[in-house]
From TrEMBL:
PANTHER family: PADR-FAMILY TRANSCRIPTIONAL REGULATOR, TRANSCRIPTIONAL REGULATOR PADR FAMILY PROTEIN. Residues 28-103 form the Transcription regulator PadR N-terminal domain. It comes from the Bacteria. This is PadR family transcriptional regulator. It comes from Nocardia huaxiensis. It holds the Pfam family PadR.
Amino acid sequence: MEYLARISGGTVPRKQSGPQLTPLAIAVLALLEENPMHPYEMYQLLMNRHEDELIKVRPGSLYHTVARLAEQELVLAEGTDRAGNRPERTIYRIRTAGREALRSRVTEILREPVREYPIFNVALAEAHNLPVDEVITLLRERVTWVDARITEYEALRDWAASREVPRRFWVVIEYVTALSRTEAEWLRGFVAELESGELSWEDFDPVTSERTSAPSQPTLGHDWGAGLTEEDIAAVRRGGAG
């Protein structure tokens, strides 16, 4: 929703100053910053470290990413490794340019928020197309799922802390835990509003699923964002209603 980004002041993703680095490419370069290794070892480490909680990790995409980094001259194939009767595996190491690209990209991401498009936001914006009882049931299920993730994150945090792993290596666990707690708290409040009827909702026929009535609407409705002007947005940012 463009108007939400306009109100919040979200920024349009800028062209990266260096080579284009995907989240998986960042992870690969970070691994090679530790030690030279072959792609299969990278995959094992990412999975063992639960990095799949942060990025999408697939063997095929990882091999493709490594090849792409080699084409960009950010990593260098420097030898092979063989374990038993397994095929030889190419070992890669990070180049100076790769190290610089890694640090530059991390710096950019830390410095300035970019507009992202979580799919849940889309579903929440269009939830009014479902009957209220169904929305309540679905969001309760989501809260249960989020709570389970929080439990897992807390277990990971406690495990790392108990083994005196330097906190800088797992501070991201604290961050995603905080985000998940906030989501669960908001969803519980939203469900409570729906259950109590405090938040008005359209009625749907239980057989045909067609809308049977709509709650009274103010001047603006579903397309309220289309009525926003730059003056309105400026007023919102100043703290006024416009």
